[in-house]
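Contributing new records

If you add data, match the layout below exactly. Sequence lines come first and carry their own label; structure lines follow with theirs. Keep one chain per record. Anything else will be rejected by the validation script.
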Amino acid sequence: MALPPLRDVIREYQLDARKKLGQHFLLDENLTGKIARQAGDLAGRTVIEVGPGPGGLTRALLGSAAGKVIAVELDPRAAEAMRALSAAFPGRLELVEADALEIDLSTLAPAPRQIVANLPYNVATPLLIGWLRQAAQWERLTLMFQLEVAERIAAAPGTGAYGRLAVLAQFVCSVGFLMRIPPEAFTPPPKVFSAVVGFIPKPVQPDAALFAAMERVTAAAFGQRRKMLRGSLRGLGGEALLERAGIAGDRRAETLSVEEFGRLAGLVAG
């Protein structure tokens, strides 16, 4: 079954990109195919895509060896486009009409499962943090963000981009900056570059209490990043906490490694 051009799909379903939904559609088949390949061997896997829009990346995922693709879509116009696409791939494309922020995606399919998505810009960070909390549920995540956000996720200690997002992501995953994508690749073009980041969850994962403690520690440390840690972490134990962790109180948050933050979180979690 020949598929219609994506621009025809946009026209047929009146899929003008809406700013409130953070929509920017990627229509270049070479790029969508490359993103799908960045997810590695998908044979037998269930791949969950959030915000498929007209289905450019969805088509690339269906063209892979993935056993099944589940598209989670909030926009009813795009949901209609997904229903039409599913007819061309009987039994391989499932539509879930929902807000990805409000459901547990890991309940949609058994393991091994992955997420591959061009995330809506306006909800990308909260979606990511939610998935990091349950990193053990995922084999891999291959996600597109605004370039600035991607750089913050992959940043190293001591750099300007290093902050809470980098620590949380790198605490539970091996993180890789995979590719940059220019604005003109999208319809409509955003004002910024985008980038794809890969996340491979580590074999040993923190329990929920430890991850929650890491969220508290990083929120305090980077919430007042100009302060020395003895000041920014005062509410969590300040100098005494730092002494127990073997970390000098006159250091600042951006100088700490992920492992050092892990020591602090372990002490806070008790």
